[in-house]
Input
Amino acid sequence: MINQKENTIKAPRRPGIKLSQSKLDINDPNLRDVFEDIQGNILKSHGRAHSRHLFIQFTADADRNQKWLGKISPRLTSAMEQHKTALDYKNSGKEHLFTGLMLSYTGFKALGLEDKEIPDDKAFRAGMKNIEFRYDTGPGGVHKRTINPLNDNPKNWEAPFKEQIDALVILSYGGENLEPEKCENYLDKEVKKFKIEIAKTATIVAIEKGYTLRNKKGKTIEHFGFADGISNPVFFKSDFMNWEKKEGTELYDPSAPFGLIAVNDTGGRDTNTSFGSYFVYRKMQQNIKGFNDQTEQFASLLTNAVGREITTEFAGALLFGRHKDGSTLTSNLHETGKPLLNNFNYDKDTEGLICPFQSHVRKTNPRGDTNRKNKVPMSSERSHRIARRGISYGSKDLMPSSEWTDAGLLFLSCQSDIEQQFLVMQCGWSDNSNFINEGTGTDPITGEQNAGSDKTAKKWQLQIDGKKIEIDFSFKDLVKIRGGEYFFAPSISFCKKFNTNYS
Ligand code: HEM
Output
């Protein structure tokens, strides 16, 4: 039974939004209710440089759990609030805390809700630890269903992730100009307050600290040193125009419909204006020394084959499909020859000799390969996109002397269908040694630990300095899964409808 506050949830004032709508305008008066009700960090990254991820397990009864949800609800940052705080930061430099909340299936249950009141994505309902559940990770969902397509072994996860996780609260703070120490202190204080508030309602099973890792030029990178956070589906017209101005969009259109990541939140105020999104969380530890050593060995094989020195940096770029600065390996094939970040496709590299088919970005966004190879309509290939909202964690040492330092990526993605988006991308593409061609091998960054080392990309067929070469080399153990869960980020009105009489 939902303990609802009467008469406090007003009926929507304006019409709603279509799931097919793209290039949204945050100032569109017809969409104001939508943007005020959907949480931030879904349609666009919240942009703060420091985060705390608080994983909680409810310990109280449904009534008290509901009241806590009601209590936190006014503090949740909506898409509209995120936009306003971004403007304020730009104009006055004032920092604002971002607060986000997501619930797992067990979290919804702990609120005393019945199944029919809980979001119905099957992966979300099964939970990430349920490795017996059968998924169809073939694009289009018409293939054989398999158990544990991620090849996860939760027994090997970090202890807190083996626990039942009911909710994830994200607190984020700090722009580029604020000293990291100040951000960390601010967040420590917020976490302290949060701990007091939640003490009689839930246990905090884990707190992950995330931060934006930057290179010397101030560019966001991940722990192997490569520029990150570049290509993501774009939902707002203003962001689309920025790409247009920067380098054009004729070779690759980054825009995406609202429905790629948003679903109706039937528990919210109104079906026209209340939306939520499914989230995938994966703590991914990165073996930095392993990456540095293996790319060095790969570079020396390349050097021998090509007959001139091939740098370790370039060898690493072949794994990602992008140079360290984020530009595509295929930039030179396009007319301008300028380094391109997103306005590119693989039309001029159909054999995968410049940007290898197994490289991380070509596996996770084939930009037309499935259409070329299997006549899959572009709209279908593009429907598997996800919006990445992850952040780095751990040591900042990018040249460690030992393997598996405590560092990596707190991977977070949002989508409207976990099986057809994240799972197709991870299992159907990255881990599938026969995607896109028989024997392509797995994605060397994220594919091997899921698919097993016998499936790795052994053969690298490349063209360097106009010379075709073939190298046998398998990358091993670059990323390890330390835990994770599937969540749903509900509409703010869903959380607000619960009684706030909490103490
Ligand atoms: C430790 C793990 C990972 C690392 C170090 C990593 C790193 C990167 C880097 C450096 C890029 C290129 C820059 C950019 O476009 O932002 C990228 C792009 C991307 N990654 Fe990952 N990633 C990881 C895990 C994943 C996972 C688990 C997925 C999904 C299953 C994923 C999906 C993508 C997608 C969709 C892109 C954009 C491709 C494009 O549109 O060109 N990544 N990643």
Remarks:
- Residues 1-8 have pLDDT under 50 and may be disordered.
